[in-house]
Amino acid sequence: MVSLSLALALCLSACTGPLNKDATAPASLPPPTSPSATKRAATAVTVAGVPADLRPLATALYSGGAVASSGAGTAAMKARTRPSRPVTVTGTVGTWEGTPIAVLSSGPDTSLLVKPRGTGWTVVGGWWPQLGDNGLHLGDGSRRVLFLGSDARVVKGQKIDRSRADAIQIAGIDGRGGGGVVGVPRDSWMSIPGHGKDKVNASMVFGGPALTQRTISAGTGLPLDGYVLTWFQGFHAMTNELGKVTVTLPVDVREMKKGRITLDGAQALWVARERKTVPGGDFGRSTHQGVLVAGFAALTRAKGPDDLPQTLTIISKNALSNLSAQQAITFAAWTYKADPTRFGRKIARGSTGTAGGASVVFVGPQARAVYADFRDGNLSGAP
User: Fold this and answer.
1) What pTM, to 2 d.p., does this model score?
2) Model pLDDT for residues 296-314, shown as the tens digit of each residue
3) What are the domain boundaries of the chain?
4) How far apart are CA 193 and CA 358, in angstroms?
5) Per-chain mean pLDDT for the chain
6) Which of 319, 371, 383 is nearest to 152 (CA)?
7) CB of 188 within 8 A of CB of 140?
């Protein structure tokens, strides 16, 4: 994210030239030496709890050795300096859509890594105060990811990625510590590429989540990195495996009273789905879906970076996504660096009416204002 101009200290122990062995000096003085001839002691690196194939990189990261890097981690890896004190590196691993991912931790440092097929471990982002770098390297500028919930009944043989998208939320960050979540009403009347105008949730029936991403990006004017799609059973299992989610409900939802509450998978699913008894109907349901997205972000933040590979593994197991492992891990890592006071939530409300023989939500001035506000990835109004 931040480009650094420091040079990599590769030759700390090299001499500028050979010492003159024939030179003499007064007995009371030590033989003359060149300052550059004084070798710096190698940094002592202890690696614990890290898989064998990741240990060489973990050691090289702090000993000054070569480290493969890409994207946000490239500049920092080239400019890093070795710590003057011994360091201990620990690590955790997981998978995202079949690609190994990892987090290495050492004191205040966090390194994000992926291992694409046919290559070795690669640093793709992180933050490294111990390596002389006070920047944050998670990608440049604003980023947004589309979160979708399919209404497929898998037990009835319905296809997850060809059923209606009844939960549509866009989560974004501005690259400066702020962010937000925008709820897109499922009945929003939009142009679907190749299929004319229809409710936005029909786009997944016509062309899967990839078409939904194209439709929403065009209809909102917001670039999207990719999508994450889950379904009833997947969402239920994901919530339970993550360890439940704590949210603050703005209104009662069935037997669950408003206020702060910890939800298991079944309860979280009802919060995401219920609209008939919720004020505002589908707008109210979309509000609750945004509350859940924020709740899962808070849960991830509370567990800390070391747990990120496990969290992403659970999500990947219970969802479909076109995000690369590099995109997923660097986007999720913003959870630990975003400022909650600069994180907003809004619903792109519109007027209701009839089109194509169905009840729809027209994208009007209020919705367009929300989308315009989110172009920088921030909904809080912070600079």
Assistant:
1) 0.85
2) 888 888 899 999 999 999 9
3) 45-131, 143-376
4) 20
5) 87
6) 319
7) no
